[in-house]
Amino acid sequence: MARAAMQAPLCLRRYSIWHPFDVHTWKNTPDATDPTNPTKPPMPVGGESATEAAQVAWLMSCSPYVNASVVPPLASALAYATHMSRESAVADALYQRLAKTAGNVVLKDIEDEMNCRLEEVEVELDGSTRRVDPYCSKQLVRTLEDSVRAHVSWLDATMTCMQGLEASQHGDATQDSMDTLVTAVSRELSKWLMDRNLTTVELVQRLSALSGSYGQPHVDLLKTKLRADARAAHTLGRLCFAADAPAHQAQIFYGNDHDLIYFLCFPPECFAHYLKVHSVPTEEVASVMRTLAGATPAAASTIPPAPMSVVFSMLQRWIRAHRSVLTEACASTVSGIAQALRVPYTHPHWSGVKLCRVRDNVQAHPLSQNAAPVRMPWKAPDHLDFDGRELVCFTPTHYGVRACRLFAVLLEEAKLGLLPARTFRASALVAVVSRFTSDRELSQEQLVSHQLKPLGDSCGHAWPGEVVCKRRPLFKRSLSPERLPLAYPMPVAEVAGDATARPEDAPVPTVPPVVDGFAAVPMAPRPPDTAALAAAASMSDSSVPTELKRDHMVLMGLNERLRVYDDAETVRGMVSVDEVFGNMRWLFPIAEQRSDSSLRQTAAVVLKRLMEKCHAAHTGSIEDVVYTNTRISTDNKRASGVSFSRKGLRLLKQFLAVTLWQMRHNGHEFNKQWFDGAAGVTYARKLAKTM
């Protein structure tokens, strides 16, 4: 009645009483005829569970006691509370799964499971359009932005320490430019990675365009410096050739003194590397030139700058000592710079670093006499879970540009799928799902406490709590032998012999054979011959002692599952713990009120005890029937239960039948044998009170 009532419109209004609930769907009503739309329409209020049905019936019961204009807002509140309750249950299950998951998770899978879109939406509330964030998507965006910014900054800092970087790239001016570039790239990349329509090809194209906007100006600026270095190297070469003509040498020096001093204080990497290979020190002349080159001396320094004549004299002495090596270094520098000026900004000459897999063991190309590292371990962004990569100086160069290195590695990451869109590490999503679940639960409690419960108090109808469908006790249920099997074997002929016989005339099965493990336990007297077969078949656990009821339910669930196995056809079988407690819920209504984790733990304990008793009674059955607890490598889940062979299946059925018969008919004597003493019986009796 309650589920049908929610579809009925009010007499005083042209809308259904659930019309206000349309606001809280957070999305447009999905078109059921559109096969490309994966969003499923929500279940009507009252149709999800017995609790919802009771709440709908409660509202319909309270409606006659209030003004008709108050009912639609109350219906909206109840519908919104139902909406939050459903999402909270799904989110809680999602949280449990993510907490045990390793690796990356695509947001599309989360959206499909929760039947939502993780983004901000615009809704109409109180006559105005508002932008709301119902699923904490801003927290995800913030996590992504922080992760991308940290990753881009880390890439720039790491590759700056590697070999092949041009000397000017370590200056303050370049650092300021890179700070601006890192901020811009991080902002754009974060925006792209939250685009639900982004593909790998589009990401590579956008990064290439961004490289042209930021990387090319850095290369052009370096080319300007390299042209000046080439001119200075050419001038130094002329000084070397004019070493025997002091007057001409002085004319060359004083005409280009500023460029020469700056060149020798901040030499290009190719020039400094050549001198280092040939053991030519530059500190001799650089020590007196740094002040003249623009470097500021220490504030407390009392050393005056050297006169230009002293600088020229020291330069002459240095040139005469290393004339041949300096001439070769200048020629090599001019040639290398001329070659670098001809290549575009996309050439590997400006980067020299490549992203490779560690297992490929890519050979690096180090520069001699250079102590800087040629390979560094790569680290994925914090919001992703990737490893097994490294940064390698793959192309030997002296003209590395920080901007080009950064874009080269980012493009490699995009091409290799290491920057997937709308993808997060499972552990990073746990925090968002946890917050969303807590918000939903708290909001639902506040909504019910402030809007719905006061109405019930004023109308004399209390707000319904958790509702459990009422069922008749198990001893009143008339289950057939096909649904609830006997706990001990019964010949088929005894049942099929007289199909028309009344239940009170049906024969009673004999007592099962005694198993060696229970031989010391006195058997209960045999039931009278006038007992009805139907009564025995529908016998509940009311005749089982309190301390044995929990174990009796588990063994009945196992017995029900073993009915599907054929002794002649089974080679190796297994009954899992989940299958056992699933049958427990089907057979015993009291088990429906217990959680899955509680029933799983109970079933595992009882099954282990059953295996111990079976092995004690049959010492040679350890390999034929055993309790297993192994991990499946395919889905990383545990498989727990009773595993048995063909021989073990027959033995297990017989031993289980004897155990169940003892629990039903001889429980007060059998309990000490089952629980290994009076202390175990006392403890089991305490546990039974919680069932």
Can you describe what's shown?
The protein is mostly helical. It folds into three domains: 2-132 and 424-459, no CATH class; 136-296 and 305-421, no CATH class; 479-688, no CATH class. The chain is 52% helix and 7% strand. The protein contains 23 helices and ten strands. The chain has helices at 2-5, 50-62, 71-99, 107-114, 137-160, 172-193, 200-241, 246-255, 257-265, 269-277, 283-289, 308-321, 323-340, 402-415, 426-459, 492-496, 533-537, 546-562, 577-587, 596-617, 646-665, 667-675, 678-688; strands at 104-106, 121-125, 128-132, 353-357, 375-377, 389-393, 423-425, 572-576, 625-632, 637-645. The strands form four sheets. The protein has a three-stranded antiparallel β-sheet with strand order 4-6-5. Strands 8-10-9 form a three-stranded antiparallel β-sheet. Strands 1-7 form a two-stranded antiparallel ribbon. Strand 2 and strand 3 (128-132) form a beta hairpin. The model is unreliable at 1-38, 466-511 and 513-541 (pLDDT under 50).
